[in-house]
## 1
Amino acid sequence: MKDTLPMDEKYKVHMSKYFEEYERSLKDVNGFWNENGRIIDWFKPFDKVLDDSKKPFYRWFINGKTNLSYNCLDRHIQNEKRNKVAFIWVPEKGEEKVVTYFGLYRRVNAFARGLLNLGVKKGDKITIYMPMILEAPIAMLACARIGAVFNVVFSGFGEQALAERINNSNSKTIITADGGYRKGNIIQLKNIVDKAIDLSNGVDNVIVVKNTHTEIDMEPDRDYYYDDIIEDGYVEPEQMDSNDPLFILYTSGTTGKPKGILHANGGYPVWIANTLKWAFNPKDEDRWWCAADIGWITGHSYIVFAPLLLGLTSVMYEGAIDYPKPDRMWEIIERYGVNLLYTSPTAIRLLMKYGEKYPLSHDLSSLKTLGTVGEPINPAAWHWYYEVIGKSRCPIIDTYWQTETGGFTISPSARLGLPDLKPGSATFPMPGIDAEILDENGKNVKPGEKGYIVIKKPWPGLMLTVNNDDKRYIDTYFSKFKGKYFMGDYAIQDDDGYYWLLGRSDEVLKVSGHRIGTIEVEDGLVSMKEIAEAAVFGKPDTVKGDTIVAFATLKDGYEKSPELIENIKKRIRNNLGPIMVPEEIHIVSTVPKTRSGKIMRRVIKAVYLDQLPGDISTLENEASVEEIKRAVDIIK
Ligand code: ATP
Ligand code: MG
């Protein structure tokens, strides 16, 4: 079994508070959420915590009226947070910009007024396709203020994916920028928007922020510059019903066609504010940096809304974490004195691949807590993050959750009681999350046995539905195990009650009657000093069921050779046993990933088996697929 790492005494808070709160959250749903539901202000208090009369369409904080922009801004400017810094915005190149809570409040109001002047109304859908500039959170907050439902589309997507999302969300207004910077290049966002509109059902308004000052076409009576429509003043925040839709966001598309997830005005903010507080225990004076993109749920919940709800100061970074140099992330931490860092395993593996010299050349002593999200973190990456970055004094908060869940579902809780951490385990459920692991027949598995992770009861962050597709909501999430929320991941709970996520349940390997999570083999590969990243899948085999095939990348300084591959197989056999040894290991320069940085095993498998790869609109790097094709051609 995996190793346990006792934490520094300083962090060894007693777990009793956690267990107490956790039990209460499940036993006394009303009492618990009556109290914790007040982490946001309500114009009109809710008169019931949960309505579960139309299962699985759960509704929270019934008849409560609130507004997310009010909760992120107005209530802070009435107290000592008024002049506190909300965001330190760090560009890829050049000087940072700082905006205070009052400044952000003013700017959100001015843009909200601009939207109203264009005729945008409560309930209208708006697509936001923007780079990581301050106007992006301003746009999201302005939409929330007037009750427009926003749909942020990651700015790395091309026109086809953008057009699909404009149509599916039924947006008639688009907010964009002339261009965005990415690794020294300019991405012509407005041009992409123009092409997407041609492919779409048509839109009424396009609002353009001048960012890169590149030449663009402006269509009269449709396209407006942001600077021309904003108008200073106060816009009364709409009184939104707790269960009015707040935003639509498409999932990453790792396993299939992205789903348009719809979140609500009441339950969602309550969930993300509480979970950020429980998991990371941020202090008022802390500087928080969530190094994600606002185009993903992580950016929505933990760059924009939860930190503002809690009145924190955040770093918001425009560019790539290894540009212009591999030490960019460490430089930002040092320069801005970041205390809490939240990033992904894919980022850690990338920075690890460059070697220790980059982090070691910076003073990272401001760091107190380190977080991760997006995929299971390989123990090797965990140790590097913990030892090299955190100098063995910062707990690793491994947060397991999904677009659909709104916020963290399984994560260590630094506030309620931090458990001894085990590298690679997301530890325990957040309060309100009644998780369990089931076998194919819906029976509870024993501790140490693998199965499907489900959540038995609703919690406030659960999506309202899949946009325009209630059937898909029921079929995808509530059908495999009737009435239970199916997360689609494979997991194990060990004898101490810790949860370990083992990869996607539809990617599980079935080798000679044994079920093996993809991550179990990948962890073994990534723990080799030569390997930076690994992706495995099962190749159908008439005798064994599946044989394991791996694609891997090497760390800087290693060369591929047949001896290396044999040697790696030998070590896997010794460390993990014969059943875990990949029959084939192919060394490539990159593995296919989603634009949010997740390994796309289904694409590798399809290419390998010469099948259609399904929806690849979220694929980040087409060259990686070509490379796999070439590798496969050589074998065949
Ligand atoms: P799609 O649903 O379209 O296939 P996706 O599942 O990648 O895309 P997201 O909602 O961005 O879309 O990602 C959620 C998934 O990411 C989880 O279901 C899980 O597989 C994985 N994940 C996220 N965080 C963790 C974590 N800390 N440990 C393990 N897995 C994680
Ligand atoms: Mg998913």
## 2
Amino acid sequence: MSEKIDWTPIKEFKEILFTQHGGIAKISINRPEVHNAFTPLTVQEMIEAMHICRDRTDIGVVVFTGEGGKAFCSGGDQSVRGHGGYVGEDAVPRLNVLDLQKLIRSLPKPVIAMVAGWAIGGGHVLHVVCDLTIAADNARFGQTGPKVGSFDGGFGASYLARVVGQKKAREIWFLCDQYDAQEALDMGLVNTVVPLDKLEETTVAWCNKILQRSPLALRMLKSSLNAELDGQAGIQELAGNATLLYYLSEEAKEGRNAFIEKRQPDFDKYPKFP
Ligand code: S0N
């Protein structure tokens, strides 16, 4: 018997569901009729939800998924792909999923992709940029770019190659084959594979374990793992976290207090660690 998890709505959207269970937020694409393909609006809503997850201090981990059990996400909705991007109600073509990818990567909390069914094209890239991927046994993974006239040369190529290696990444993009959950596990593309009816309860169990860990340590680890690969943007993220930690110290507060009190700071009492 699979355990039923109660999810409380955080905010109503048109194309996604955004809910919470304790310290876990769940962002779920709600377009199962097109295997959860995304439009500019879907992406805009996911970006807003990610910002809320970032700002809410009671949320410690984010689950990213798709509704219906048959697809995580099938990438950009090809029916609204126009001249230079995906076209929303304002008639402007956009590739705003790139902004979402950066947000997932720099969110200072773990993001877990919970994948049932298809993770294809831009949908595959979204699971790749998540910190962890938990796959159901019906999950299928792959890129379609060269088949449908697109490609993602950013995280979708370079980070994929870091995850599965250069040879495998080139195979995935050049052949556009599909890989089942076990093959994905074997190539290190996902963290674990579970029966479909155990997907949510396993994901929540992983989240609850993460929630027992030190949030600052998790934050530092995520930005440290990113920094090695992300150049100046990665260093900025890691250094920002170092600043956060420094601001928590009495030594840093002495600098602020001295300025406010219009006196010279007294840093003598703070140790010069080896
Ligand atoms: C997933 C597939 C293999 C499933 O096949 P299956 O099970 O036979 O189902 P279908 O009958 O094909 O699908 C069911 C219904 O869903 C619709 N549908 C599926 N995927 C999409 C989609 N992506 N867009 C619009 N509709 C979709 C089907 O049409 C069908 O509807 P009905 O019932 O009405 O016929 C199979 O569905 C499949 O191959 N899907 C397409 C996968 C794909 O090619 N995705 C797009 C890949 N490209 C991107 O995602 C680009 C991402 C991006 O934005 C980007 C990012 C960075 C840089 C560049 C780009 C860029 O856009 O170029």
## 3
Amino acid sequence: MSAALTETPAWQALQAHFETVKSTHLRDLFAADPQRGERLTAEGAGLYLDYSKHRVTGETLELLLALARARGLPERRDAMFGGEKINVTEGRAVLHTALRMPRGTEVLVDGRNVVPDVHEVLDRMSAFARQVRSGGWLGHTGRPIRAIVNIGIGGSDLGPVMAYEALKYYAQRDLTVRFVSNVDGTDLVEKTRDLEAEETLFIVSSKTFTTQETMANAQSARAWLLSTLGDEAAVARHFVAVSTNAEAVQKFGIDTANMFGFWDWVGGRYSMDSAIGLSLMLAIGPDGFQELLSGFHDMDEHFRTAPLEANLPVLMGLLGVWYNNFFGAETLAVLPYDQYLAYFPAYLQQLDMESNGKHVTLGGQEVAYQTGPVVWGQPGTNGQHAFYQLIHQGTKLIPCDFIAFAQTLNPLPLPGGAPHHDLLMANVFAQTEALAFGKTLDEVLTEGVDAGLAPHRVFEGNRPTSTLLADRLTPRTLGALTALYEHKVFVQGVIWDVNSFDQWGVELGKVLAGRIVKELGTDEPELSHDSSTNALIRRYRARR
Ligand code: F6P
């Protein structure tokens, strides 16, 4: 793929078109087309996407789709699903989609069908989960496991914790499930302080089994366990591992019989549906986990087979490119109107920003355009009382994804009023309406507002939003939703011609931290950093 994305006819056609439509208001687009709100919608894998409140015309969409075709999106998608080594900087296939392939199907990596391998691990995970959940897996002193602590970071934490929180409704509530990620000792101390060592199972989750934070937390967790149980043999009943690195697992002292593996063709941030999801499976059970996988697979099939113009990840990816590269929007707000999805924006931050936070093309040339957006957000309605002011009336353009469910898992009637869920949903609809259409000066003045105050009360509107509406938050819906964003990120990576599947950018900090940690406990050796870093280290040494 050529580096000169901005020189391609498809890009230049979009640029020219942008100049003609950039000031068009959503008020006018809706006025000109009474069916717009029904027309600009798409549906797949149980998710309904309304993208009518975007600053696009029919021509914009055609040009964006033409760009996708010109960048070879269908071919690149098929290459990913087909197991080609599209992660070129690491020489790896990218096959998180194989993790959710049904039993009996085939995906080849270097001539080997990996689907049976996937199901072999799933079967072992399921058998283990059933044992623990039923009280059949006993701790060292013969007591059943009551608490699960997943130790991992990045993709080995964010996916499991997001999905556990999202699916807590379906969890076995007499099992306590916690997630320790931060190397800050506070995380481990606070998450274990009320647990009984005899009833606690640690899952050390690390693709590489070398990550500093996870290894430090795993060592300290072992010390915590042994401080109560004394006997080294207890480790075998209280520690299991999830990793691709059997040698390191063994070295740590975990029996590889208690290790659940995955493969180098699963990226960390794409791994929550691999064995990395073991803590989630323990919480919601093997059947719930299978439902989650089915939801992922539903969306994979939609992405693989739906025409581009009706394809949810394609549409969302292209709309993101439209704002990121033409309107100059720098961020994307993800706003789930469901308290269970509180961790979803944080999960998406790694998925999107670690994937597309890149400055060179696949061929290694510096890009001449913006790549991945800053992703942020938190559940509504809370965010409305915090940062929505800036989205409504600030000077920045912030496209937003609203995510909502027609049915609540916790119906709560309100005596004498609308039930909680109607209140919640009214806010979703009201926000996207207000963001799109705003309130004009005339409307404000007609309300009788003083002319001097009126400018403060004007809402310009024309703030673009997507609304994703599903019937109900289930394991299957969550799988589809997560896969939707995985593939949206892929679509954008293809347009920008970046490798969405490596993460060299986190390496430098890791290397420097490894060097500095040796300098903290001693006055030697002589510090040779810049003057700022030297001074900070000296101050820390003096006051630690
Ligand atoms: O942050 C860098 C990273 O490599 C992520 O991509 C990954 O999810 C995380 O560290 C954890 O890695 P591991 O699972 O190997 O411990």
## 4
Amino acid sequence: MYSTDLRTDKEKKSADQQALDDAQLWDAFQTRIDNGDVIEAKDEMPERYRATLIRQISQHAHSEIVGQLPEGNWVTRAPTLKRKLILLAKIQDEAGHGLYLYSAAETLGRSRDDMVADLLSGKAKYSTIFNYPTPTWADIGTIGWLVDGAAVTNQIPLCRCSYGPYARAMVRVCKEESFHQRQGYEIVTTLAQGSTEQKALAQDSLNRFWWPSLMMFGPSDSASTHSSQNMKWKIKRHSNDELRQRFIDATVPQAEFLGLTIPDPDLKWNEETGHCDYSQPDWNEFHDVISGNGPCNRERLETRKKAWDDGQWVRDAMMAHAEKKAAAKQAAQ
Ligand code: BYC
């Protein structure tokens, strides 16, 4: 006897039964997370967990790729050959981070082409920080010191993220980001200990990058839409405000050592809390930049679109080569 019912067993279940099964699956998954299990690509997982990881990891990958642009602006103008080599190596590291992260996101079932299409259409976000210009050489130092410093603070806990492929990718990313932070601090140290003009460049750059660096940690906890669920799933281990505070506490003595002034008159050590008090960044500006209206949003996307279009012949050539090889292999069989 043939059945014309082509529905899968899952589809045949009543909606109530399905909801019950989903709830049980959800509970079993949460128990695994609570027990500290690492989730792997082929494990069963709630669709929301999968979707949130694709969102976060692809946003992170896009940030690494777009993050090359403000620094690329200085490759031809780095002050010495040594500085140029170091900067080139750093930018190459960022490209590598983007590639590991796209690979980690692909394990969740979304193709790299689709993720890139989302970036180029403006649908996918990337970090707000890369929509600010880098008009002076001091900005390359400040990006290493503050931007990579903030990135390391945010990303070290991601090495313990519950999703294995992301956590493992982050180990190497963090080692490289720590080196980037040091090279940036070394550039700023050289400027801060240099001539009056050089020190002024370093101070001006700190003034421009301080607030955008604080925004890298995301909105305050009360405004963060994903934090509580992501912390329950151990994707995030600390809240946005906790990590922002950790970054500020670590950076203030570094600025003091350099003799530079952080542009926040309310910044002061609080004996009672054991942390620095600080002012909030301008959250309206943050939302403007997220919505595509930051100083360099359009320029960044146009550059990425042009790079994608200019690379079309390489992708075509690779496909043609692969097809030719496959045809030759088949003919030989
Ligand atoms: N920029 O509920 P929330 C690097 C979005 S790469 C843009 O708190 P979540 C580097 C957020 O996505 C730096 N968007 O979200 C590279 C969400 O969007 P939806 C990138 C932001 O995910 C080269 C909405 O706002 N690092 O360091 O719990 C050279 C609500 O936020 C931003 C990563 O991607 C922002 N700053 O927390 C040098 C690290 N902040 O739902 C350096 C991994 C928030 O509207 N990502 N949004 O689509 C994370 O840790 C988390 O995703 C975030 C946000 C802390 C960024």
